[in-house]
Design a protein that fits this description.
Two copies of one chain form a homodimer. The first copy, chain A, is an alpha/beta fold. Helices cover about 30% and strands about 35% of the residues of chain A. Chain A has helices at about 1-10, 30-45, 60-70, 130-145, 160-165, and strands spanning about 15, 20, 30, 55, 75-80, 90-100, 105-110, 120-125, 145-155, 170-180, 185-190. In chain A, helix 2 (about 30-45) crosses helix 3. Chains A and B meet through strand 3, helix 2, helix 3 and strand 5 of A and strand 3, helix 2, helix 3 and strand 5 of B.
């Protein structure tokens, strides 16, 4: 997705440890028009998949997911990173290890919001080691829902998550795939087609 | 906003402790079309205020804020509830006490994303005791930005936050104001005009 790649080239910052900081339009400040373009792109790629809901993870997955859901006319469910007191114990949950934060979080979704009749598109902002998507897949499988695929805004193609998910037979559509962040330079590879 | 009130009447659940659970369309599952209507309503109310950015709080403030930002053509900045390792120390921060979760959280915004030239609309999903909005105001004031007002999706009018903010001279626009949750019934009052 050229619009997204341009934005990454203009505003992304490469930090030590292969971190790409896109806080100016995705992870802290959000560019709503770009999110709409991203949501429309996901809707175009997965619009024929019979989706009933989008499943994502708070917080940075919410904006692109809501825009995709708006286009497709379906609800978005975001997994929470810990339980709140206003939620009952009827939860699907999974553990997700974050290499960035060096900690495990429990993520959970109320059983009220996904079920075996659902066909889910999983959306997340970044795909690196794939731990967050694995957690969302775990929750989706617990619910018995079908999984149409995974939509990723930015994939770090030099980390193992994308290959790992595709080797499971999942359809993974990443709107920008980064092949390298070496020498503080962002290099892209073309989106995988399958 | 009648569409929102109807949704609250149809799907809101009153829990013990004056909790209104709207997990089916706002706080866990999100109704994108309703979020767009809410965003459009905020844009209509504050569209003449010279806004440059929307300031909100993760996670449930993000969806209505992004829709308002889309309508107005301005970015959204969401305050984070704790620091991540990918963020530097150049932060505005404030402490927010949550009566629901019975704990204090630090919320923070990167100094890169709001400044004295900004005119901010603060948006949040709920207004009860007003602690979250006070934290966002604190951050806005640290940045030197102007504050055009506060847009709230659901105000609990029987709790003190709304009056407290209005008494500060702030323009507070709540799209649904609940006057009572007694006897597990949702009762609304008309939106305050000022």
């Amino acid at each position: 997705m050229q619009l997204l790649k341009n934005k990454i080239m203009e505003e992304g910052k490469v930090l030590p440890g292969n971190v790409l900081k896109v806080d100016s339009f995705l992870n802290h400040q959000i560019d709503p028009a770009l999110m709409q373009a991203i949501g429309d792109e996901f809707a175009e790629k997965f619009g024929q998949a019979g989706l009933t809901k989008i499943l994502t993870l708070e917080s940075s997955g919410i904006a692109p997911s809501v825009m995709a859901g708006l286009n497709l006319g379906i609800p978005v469910v975001f997994a929470r990173k810990r339980k709140s007191l206003t939620q009952n114990s009827d939860l699907y949950s999974a553990s997700v290890y974050s290499y960035t934060k060096q900690e495990s979080n429990e993520i959970s979704v109320s059983k009220a919001h996904i079920c075996e009749n659902d066909t889910l598109l999983i959306i997340d902002d970044f795909l690196a080691n794939g731990q967050a998507v694995l957690g969302l897949l775990d929750i989706a499988e617990q619910s018995g829902a079908s999984i149409a695929g995974v939509g990723i805004v930015i994939e770090k193609g030099f980390q193992p998550g994308g290959d790992m998910l595709r080797e499971k037979g999942l359809r993974v559509e990443s709107l920008a795939i980064i092949s390298s962040l070496d020498n503080n330079q962002v290099a892209f590879k073309e989106a995988a087609v399958r």
